[in-house]
Amino acid sequence: MANSKLKLYYFDIRGRGEVARLILAAAGKRFEDIRFTLDDWPEYKKKAPYGQAPLLEVDGVIFAQSLAINAFLAREFGFHGKTSLEIFKIDEIAHLVEDFVLIVARNFHLNDEAEKTNGILAIKVNDATRYFRFLEKILETNGTGYFVGDRLTLADILFFDVVTGFCSAYVDVTNEFPMLKNNMSRVCGNAGISAYVAGRKDSSF
């Protein structure tokens, strides 16, 4: 995999493509970050086997589905579990995070701006708090500052993306969640992620 040629195709936003970018940044893996506009999407859509992005091209072969892409990259670059149980736990957290992301996505795509604004507040107060309590408990139980094991994994990167990426307007890591705040600092402690985040453009999604 170290010598494989990778191309990541996604819109010029964070969205569903950002976790893959963060994993690759953490790994220090060079890749082509191919970003396009909504107007350009019909041309790139011809490459998409299921009509959706992101897409990951590995040595000329196109793969799709963000959860699968993230899990693949995490395995290949050492950010997945070392044992079957660690893998199980990381996958569990990935699907827990996905449940929250889908709640945000439904509100994000509302056409009524007033309804959307009210939804942001409701999600931040209710849903985000509920899911953050789940995640805080996982960190407390693990006891290392990381969600799984004693090192950076996909689970930590997924949470970091929730707080800094597409869902950022819907969440607030308050002092109620000291372990989550500490976990974010640990993710930022990765040199590759720190450099990538410092250089990426401001975006609300």
Automatic annotation (TrEMBL):
A molecular function GO annotation: glutathione transferase activity
TM annotation in the entry: none
Keyword Ion transport: no
Keywords: Eye lens protein
Name recorded for this polypeptide: Glutathione transferase
Domain of life the protein comes from: Eukaryota
Pfam families hit by this protein: GST_C_3 (PF14497), GST_N (PF02798)
InterPro entries, per database record: Glutathione-S-Trfase_C-like, Glutathione-S-Trfase_C_sf, Glutathione_S-Trfase, Glutathione_S-Trfase_N, GST_C, GST_superfamily, Thioredoxin-like_sf
CDD domains noted in UniProt: GST_C_Sigma_like, GST_N_Sigma_like
UniProt record similarity statement: Belongs to the GST superfamily.
Record-annotated GST C-terminal domain positions: 83-205
Source organism of the structure: Lymnaea stagnalis (Great pond snail)
Described function: S-crystallins are structural components of squids and octopi eye lens. Contains relatively little if any GST activity.
BP GO terms, sorted: glutathione metabolic process
Domain GST N-terminal: residue ranges: 4-81
